[in-house]
Design goal:
Number of helices: 20
Distance between the termini: 24 Å
Shape: globular
Radius of gyration: 26 Å
Oligomer: single chain
Length: 457
């Protein structure tokens, strides 16, 4: 029995969340709303920052790690409920993919693969089917590479110890570096860090030693968002390899990062400073706080600017989850500041798109249109939403959205690009009556008149 079938047989009960309304009536929560709620839980876990030093504040660090894990568990459970409710729908594919992402963060490759397999069983030729196939291929590729390169390292290290030949030394060092790189590509960052450190410890004079030490800092900074953990690695680069290119880059990076993190902390302190004491008391008592009650009235514009600045600074650090979180807090806490909220909604969508989370970007752009239809970012948002639809292979929606963008007027920034795309989508190269975009969505060929959406399989 295939994994997908086994997986779904294990889901014994279908959980349908209901909300009581009126005098005993029930209203089923829309599946789309459940997905968005699950995504928010995932985003909350992504944005949770572990601030304690692992070595100096061990117990507090463990508590924060456990809290982050709990947040991911809540997201995982929410996605499982969606799969139980709609086992083969489009939201099921998205939920399986997100669950696989969570398991990858936990280095549970077999469980991640199970969920990728489930996607392929549902829709092998769709967007998520392609993503799942790539995910499985990468897991297999890098796990195999790790085994091969580890054996190569061991063999050539033994040869070097016997012969003392430089060639064997270089081959062993490069193989160990490749093991570390494969762990990094796989997403197993603790093992990547450990093996990069081994390169430095075992081959300190080799050309790959300084890059390996730099990689330790890079993984901490840009994959784990752990600035305390990565800082010492860059400092060691400066101390151990004073004549290297990596040393110059490490000095620049530490200077820029220190300034950026300091500015973020200062702006966060400003936000706390201007919070209403009454609002803080209300929150502690569990009372609902209206957006205009949270901050002192005359300081609201300063608070808005602080949130915006924090978002930009996190983006400078390529820390998209924290940047999105800053803009989302602006929307949630200061929704009555219409222009600022509209800008924040656009930034959230743009950041999702930049981070490759295209479905979340589509929904965020829609949130902008629904709540701020007069926004200065509307035209840009329509075009980018169309780009995202094309990216997830929903070509019919992309076609309609590009046309909607063109209807805004010939003076919009990407009018020519949209026009060219629409023309391409409307081509019927094989003359079977089905336009290019329809064939693309169906996964059929626009060069073979016998291969079209209406053909019998």
């Amino acid at each position: 029995m295939k994994r997908f079938v086994c997986f779904n047989l294990c889901l014994a009960f279908v959980i349908v969340t209901v909300t009581l309304v009126g005098c005993g009536g029930v209203q089923i929560v829309p599946i789309g709303a459940k997905v968005q709620n699950a995504d928010k839980k995932f985003d909350k876990a992504e944005a949770y920052r572990i601030k304690s030093d692992k070595d100096e504040e061990r117990e507090k660090w463990r508590e924060e790690v456990a809290e982050k894990k709990m947040l991911y568990d809540e997201a995982l459970n929410a996605y499982v409920e969606i799969i139980e409710r709609e086992p083969t729908g489009k939201y099921s594919q998205r939920s399986h993919y997100q669950i696989a992402e969570i398991y990858k963060k936990r280095y549970e490759w077999d469980k991640a693969t199970d969920h990728y397999d489930a996607i392929i069983e549902i829709a092998p030729s769709g967007y998520y089917g392609g993503q799942a196939k790539s995910g499985i291929a990468n897991i297999r590729k890098y796990r195999k590479l790790i085994e091969e390169k580890r054996r190569r390292y061991q063999n050539y290290l033994a040869l070097y110890e016997e012969t003392n030949e430089q060639e064997h030394y270089d081959t062993a060092a490069l193989a160990l570096y490749d093991v570390a790189d494969s762990y990094e590509q796989l997403g197993n960052y603790p093992e990547a860090i450990a093996y990069y450190q081994r390169v430095v410890d075992e081959f300190p004079e080799h050309d790959k030693a300084a890059p390996a030490l730099t990689k330790i800092g890079y993984v901490h900074f840009y994959k784990l968002y752990d600035y305390l953990g990565g800082w010492p690695a860059y400092v060691k680069v400066i101390e151990m390899y004073p004549d290297s290119y990596e040393k110059t880059e490490a000095e620049r990076l530490l200077k820029d990062t220190e300034r950026t993190l300091t500015e973020i902390a200062q702006n966060q302190a400003e936000i706390r400073r201007y919070r209403s004491k009454k609002a803080i008391e209300y929150e502690k008592s569990g009372r609902v706080i209206l957006p205009n009650e949270r901050y002192g009235g005359r300081y609201v514009d300063i608070v808005v600017q602080c949130f915006q600045y924090i978002g930009r600074r996190w983006e400078d650090l390529r820390n998209f989850p924290y940047a999105i979180d800053a803009y989302r807090k602006l929307v949630d806490q200061l929704s009555y500041k219409k222009f600022a909220a509209a800008d924040a909604r656009y930034q959230i969508a743009r950041l999702y798109q930049r981070n490759g989370q295209l479905e979340q970007a589509i929904e965020a752009y829609q949130d902008l249109f629904d709540n701020n239809p007069e926004s200065m970012w509307r035209a840009e948002g329509v075009y980018q939403q169309a780009v995202c639809y094309r990216g997830i292979r929903e070509f019919a929606k992309a076609y309609e959205t590009f046309k909607a963008y063109m209807s805004l007027g010939r003076d919009v920034a990407y009018y020519r690009e949209a026009e060219q795309i629409v023309r391409q989508f409307e081509i019927d190269q094989d003359g079977d009556g089905h336009k290019f975009y329809i064939e693309q969505e169906a996964g059929t060929s626009d060069r073979d008149p016998n291969d079209h959406p209406g053909a019998k399989s």
